[in-house]
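User: Reviewer 2 asked us to show a designed sequence for the structure in our supplementary figure. I'm pasting the structure tokens here. Could you produce the per-position amino acids so we can include them in the response letter?
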């Protein structure tokens, strides 16, 4: 959350560049797998390989880390990171097998100070959404029960220059 706060406070420096989604996801699995293993939970990766997206260095990783942290703290069972693409976006979903987002929180889940845990800050998802938006991306709650969150990023093709839509 501290890194997300810092990133949200700063103006976005630099232009998003083409990055391998496989590399971003693999790095997050290396970082998070020990935490899942300590709680006897599994972290799996499925979906399309060889996808590229335009992101500012570290921003997609921070958003995925927030979604994984939420799944670890609030979810249950296996957590799956699933990659796919639409004609305009690369999609990185994080899903778990828990009870999901309580119905009363669904409409406000991305608001600051909204938390499903007593003592939670309620900053993570709000800041993750802000960081993703700075790169032209979006974080959405795809399904509340069991929880599926998705990060949509601008689709990229190696060798094709980045031209953000106005």
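Assistant: Here is a per-position design you can include in the supplement:
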């Amino acid at each position: 959350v501290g890194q997300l706060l810092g990133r949200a406070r700063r103006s976005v420096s630099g232009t998003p560049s083409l990055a391998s989604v496989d590399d971003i996801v693999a790095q997050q699995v290396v970082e998070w797998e020990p935490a899942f293993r300590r709680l006897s939970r599994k972290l799996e990766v499925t979906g399309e390989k060889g996808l590229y997206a335009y992101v500012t260095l570290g921003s997609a990783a921070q958003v995925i880390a927030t979604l994984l942290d939420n799944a670890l703290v609030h979810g249950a069972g296996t957590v799956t990171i699933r990659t796919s693409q639409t004609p305009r976006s690369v999609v990185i979903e994080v899903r778990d097998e828990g009870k999901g987002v309580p119905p009363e929180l669904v409409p406000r889940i991305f608001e600051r100070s909204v938390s499903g845990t007593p003592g939670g800050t309620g900053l993570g998802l709000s800041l993750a959404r802000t960081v993703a938006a700075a790169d032209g991306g979006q974080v959405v709650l795809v399904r509340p029960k069991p929880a599926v969150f998705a990060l949509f990023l601008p689709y990229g093709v190696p060798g094709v220059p980045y031209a953000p839509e106005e």
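For the response letter, you might also mention the following. The first strand starts at residue 17 and ends at 20. The two ends are 30 Å apart (CA to CA).
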